[in-house]
Amino acid sequence: MNLLEAFIIFASAVLSGMLFFLFLWNSNKLKLLLSLSGAYLFAITVLHLIPEIYSTGDHLIGIYLLAGFFLQIILDYFSQGIEHGHIHVQHHHGKAIVPFTMLLSLCIHAFFEGMPVGGTHNEHTSDMLVFGIVIHNIPIALALMSLLSQSGVAKSRSILLLSIFAIMTPLGMLLSAYLSHAQAIDLSSYYQKIMAVVIGIFLHISTTILFESSENHRFNLQKFGVIILGTLMALGTVFLF
Predict the structure, then answer these.
(1) Burial, 3: exposed, middle or buried (Cβ in 10 Å; 0-12, 13-18, 19+)?
(2) CA 11 to CA 14: how far, in whole Å?
(3) pTM (two decimals)
(4) Does residue 231 contact residue 59 with C-beta atoms inside 8 Å?
(5) 185 touches 100 (CB < 8 A)
(6) 3 state DSSP class of 13
(7) Mapping DSSP to helix (H, G, I), strand (E, B) and coil, where does residue 90 land?
(8) What are the beta bridge partners of residue 97?
(9) Do the Cβ atoms of 165 and 107 come closer than 8 Å?
(10) pLDDT, tens only, 92-128
């Protein structure tokens, strides 16, 4: 496992969440960041990740891709869609509470994202996954901190919860890297299936973000420009590097 990649993923999530305390983030800025990350994730999934898993000739790989897609639907139910910018403050007897089921679902989502990064030996795929996770985690971290702030959580506790979310992807990387080198378990035979599950998760999140990018079916030139930018970034990473 590349420790530098793990640190970049962890630090980017923590630092992005900390930006919440330094800048005024409104819903429009958050949606633009989400549109950028959604377009990038969708583009690298279509251009590189899906062709890679089907290149093995396993015609049943699509079952695992569908499993990942439907897994994210289930996780969405508990996370209340925070992965794509939805912020729902829960109340109990009129008092805001910390939604721990949402945090747990978000951590499971982040853990799964890290597994193919730790198990791959393809440097190009690893770099694209890391960059995709980083730009995907930026708006999630901001949304999480916004939710915790609106729930009345203290700043120190919010940073702790943010750090727990941020460490989950590196933990997924660590587990898959360990299994891939363990003598008892050869993760390489399962790598493409794990990758397919994560691709299904990426497809659900990215398409949901893109479908929601035009509210009330109205064309938004600013968001469309951000989507084009995210797509061009993906094209650059796939074909130029």
Answers:
(1) exposed
(2) 5
(3) 0.85
(4) no
(5) no
(6) helix
(7) strand
(8) 90
(9) yes
(10) 555 556 678 888 888 999 999 888 887 777 787 888 8
Task: Report CA-CA distances (Å) from 68 to 71, 134, 140, 217.
Answer: 5, 20, 19, 28
Cα of 196 vs its chain's centroid, Å: 15
Contact between 107 and 164 under an 8 Å Cβ cutoff? The reply is yes
Residue 209: which of 130, 116, 143, 113 has the closest Cα? 143
CB 216 within 8 A of CB 88: no
**Residue 128 CB partners (closer than 8 Å, separation 6+):** 44, 48, 49, 237, 238
Q: Per-domain residue ranges for the chain? A: 3-239
Could you tell me the sign of the dihedral formed by the alpha carbons of 132, 134, 135, 141, in that order?
positive
Q: How many helices (H) and strands (E) in the chain?
A: 9, 2
How big is the chain, counted in residues?
Answer: 241
- H/E run at residue 107: helix 100-119
